[in-house]
Amino acid sequence: SMVHGQLPYFDSINFVVSFIAQLLYILKYQENWSLWIIVNGANIIYWSILAVQTMMGANHIGSLGASLSQIALQFALLFNSLYATKVWASGEADNEGGAGKDGDK
Q1: Terminus-to-terminus CA distance in the chain, angstroms?
Q2: Greater pLDDT, 78 or 8
Q3: Domain parsing of the chain, residue ranges
Q4: 13 versus 79: which is more confidently predicted?
Q5: What is the pLDDT of residue 9?
């Protein structure tokens, strides 16, 4: 399948973006959440494609249940990223030590 050939590129790009997002999180830059939103969105698309391919019998990597559970997980992580973006941007996270480096409120 076409996606199967792209998996190594998708996985490596996703790893790099996740790694950068994790670094920004550790350094307490609120931009980390924007990257996580991208990662989660990309993962939803990725696992949805695998799920559809599995249903069509075009893909035998993993199971439909595994793909569907990943989609559910990524939606939960996406919700968390969106919520964290709101909290960090509003300054509510200051008490948690999550203020932006530039001091913006």
Answers
A1: 48
A2: 78
A3: 2-92
A4: 79
A5: 74
